[in-house]
Amino acid sequence: MVSNPAPADSSADGGLNRAFAVLRDTFGLNQFRPHQGEVIHTLINGGDAIAIMPTGGGKSLCYQIPSIVRKGTGVVISPLIALMKDQVDALRQYGVKAASLNSGMTYYDRRRVESRLIAGDLDVLYLAPEGLLAEPMLALLEKIPLALFAIDEAHCVSRWGHDFRPEYLRLSILGERFAGVPRVALTATADEMTRREIATQLNLRGADEHVAGFDRPNIRYMISETAGAKQALLDFLNEKHRGDSGIVYCLSRRNVDEAAKWFRAKGLRAVPYHAGLAKADRDRHHNMFVNEEGVIVVATVAFGMGIDKPDVRFVAHLSLPKTIESYYQETGRAGRDGLPASAWMSYGLQDVTMLIQMLESSEADEEFKRVERSKINALLGMCESADCRRVTILGYFGESYEGPCGNCDNCLESPETWDGTVVTQKALSCVQQTRQMFGVSYLVDVLLGKSTDRIKRFGHHRLKVYGAGLELGASEWRTVIRQLTAMRLLDPDPDGFGGLRLTDKGRAQLQAGETVLLRKLRRKKVTKPAPRVSSAAPLTDTVDQALFDALRKLRLGLARAQNVPPYVIFHDMTLMEMARKRPRDAATMAAIAGVGPVKVSRYGEEFLKVIREYGT
Ligand code: ADP
Ligand code: ZN
Question: Which class would CATH give 4-211?
Answer without folding.
Answer: alpha beta
